[in-house]
Task: inverse folding
């Protein structure tokens, strides 16, 4: 990891509202579980940037980090370990610590009245846990029973771009090929790329093959002949777009970028989709920014998307019949792809009175 | 460029036949035009590795290199510049020097009896110049009028894998998304990646944006809303497979790998394509090697393909109906994607008596 670790470093200019906007009303007791990871530290940063009404904040991680102090935008915080005997009293828990933690702690916290927003894949296929991208299906939060699932880092930008097109023209088929950065595998992924760049003979660590100067067409565990990452993209996209039988083909590929996932999308719609109308819908879509002037070398790249909250969409074109559209998108997988989306879910729930406050 | 430049370094073990196989029969006067470039130096290496019957060899490049001596597997050679007043007498010319050189010198050499194998895109859409991947359409060489076009570096591995499937099951539609290495842009591309890795603030040179830690969804000039690279893949694949109306969607993307292009392919066929039969056809296809055991982390990667002559194919799976197939491939873009294919064209023509010898 080099010294300008973007996951931790605090850029004051990133908090334009700090000290300007008086934070009024109730505040939440917030817990961040998995706070030492890539997504966890980005969560803390974004909670502060967006002036989320934090009344009390506690950070949790695995026993290896117990008692360590970590620097956060909320000051130095001591890392705790979740204790079965003394479970924490929280209004809101962000979980970014994998499937096992989600399975063991999700309901335990929810039953105590904590609203749980989980980043792992554990709850994503559970009917009782809404799977939400606020710009697309915020209303699904109303049926929450205390646990909300945050979609996968590639699904979020994909549905952001697809939702308005699907709404107006009806998706019939979708092929999506991803270019996913190493931070999708957390700090270990970033460390592996760093180590391999520094040493040409470094043995692979976070990935089964060298990732520096390579691309790896497999992410996650196995789901038959598909990778789990590919299956997630299919199932989650169908669920969020409420299109349970939508035909989706995917290939998910790890590439040697640090932060920012990109996706090449080739989509077929039920109705004729005029190109300019598609571009207008994308430009107007919340959370989306059109970057589409190839003559000026403007198109989405992960390097440009990294650190931004919006999903860049470009290369919008037709290359089959009048019902077909291709485009390319890039988004920050740690921010909108994970932490930002979780915070936006919490903000939406606060605004709708779905989070009880005790402070 | 680091000191182990794979484009020039000579590994003796790479020439297993040297001194073993007596080279008999006629030999050719060979010229390599663009000999100082990435493809040119790979051409010289492959001619030697494969014991091509070279009787005399001359190397040509732009005036900037005139009179320089370059180290080649054939010894030190002095770089010449093509002269209109004294055009060279060659039996065989490999051109790897761009469209302008092809336009200016292609017919000039062919009219003098030289067989010209050109790597640029200039002749690829000309009916008089066969566009050939020997494993797929060697017979097209019979109609040659002295100029043969070498397909683009992504088209070659793509048609190698598709040809046997298309022959048996009839392609109906194809979506191909590429992951192309920087050496596709020649030595400049390699130098840019190297410089950007060494210096985080290095300005982009060979590409419009930084390529280190980034992916760029645009390659080459513009062809409407498509990039030229995307248009090439469509037109060349149709021509080689003799499927002039084949529906093809493509997105071509530059990624920060040094050597080796990869492609994610999603194909639809006219007939039901049994998965095991597809795997058997791919495994038996000339020039193709099946690397398809995800449980053992075996799938094609550019790093594994680099330096090899075969195209790796894996991730073979169905993910739509029974007529649909997805797979992933990787090939060395300098070897099979360019230089090796050119040498194989020359070998095929020699065997068929299509190159006149004067030595």
Result:
């Amino acid at each position: 990891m080099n010294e300008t670790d973007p996951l931790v470093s605090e850029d004051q200019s990133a908090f334009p509202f700090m000290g300007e906007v008086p934070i009024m009303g109730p505040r939440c007791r917030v817990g961040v579980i998995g706070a030492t990871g890539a997504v966890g530290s980005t969560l803390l940063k974004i909670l502060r940037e967006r002036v989320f009404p934090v009344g009390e904040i506690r950070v949790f991680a695995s026993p290896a980090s117990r008692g360590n102090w970590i620097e956060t935008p909320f000051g130095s915080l001591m890392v705790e370990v979740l204790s079965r005997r003394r479970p924490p009293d929280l209004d809101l828990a962000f979980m970014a610590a994998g499937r096992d933690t989600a399975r063991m702690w999700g309901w335990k916290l929810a039953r105590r009245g904590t609203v749980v927003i989980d980043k792992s894949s554990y709850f994503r296929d559970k009917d009782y846990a809404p799977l939400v991208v606020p710009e697309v299906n915020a209303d699904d939060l109303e049926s929450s029973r205390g646990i909300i699932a945050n979609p996968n880092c590639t699904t979020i930008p994909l549905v952001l771009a697809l939702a308005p097109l699907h709404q107006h023209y009806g998706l019939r088929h979708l092929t999506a090929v991803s270019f996913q950065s190493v931070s999708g595998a957390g700090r270990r992924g970033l460390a592996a790329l760093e180590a391999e760049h520094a040493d040409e003979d470094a043995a692979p660590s976070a990935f089964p093959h060298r990732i520096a100067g390579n691309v790896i067409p497999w992410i996650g565990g196995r789901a038959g002949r598909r990778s789990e990452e590919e299956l997630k993209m299919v199932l989650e996209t169908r669920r969020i777009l409420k299109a349970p039988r939508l035909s989706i083909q995917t290939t998910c590929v790890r590439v040697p970028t640090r932060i920012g996932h990109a996706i090449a999308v080739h989509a077929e719609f039920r109705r004729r989709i005029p190109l300019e109308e598609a571009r207008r819908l994308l430009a107007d879509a919340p959370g989306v920014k059109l970057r589409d002037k190839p003559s000026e070398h403007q198109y989405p790249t992960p390097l440009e998307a990294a650190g931004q909250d919006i999903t860049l969409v470009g290369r919008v074109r037709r290359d089959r019949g009048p019902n077909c559209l291709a485009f390319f998108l890039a988004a920050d997988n740690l921010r909108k792809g994970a932490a930002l989306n979780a915070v936006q879910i919490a903000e939406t729930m606060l605004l709708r009175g779905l989070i009880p406050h005790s402070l």
About this structure: Chain A touches chain B through 51 residues (CB under 8 Å).
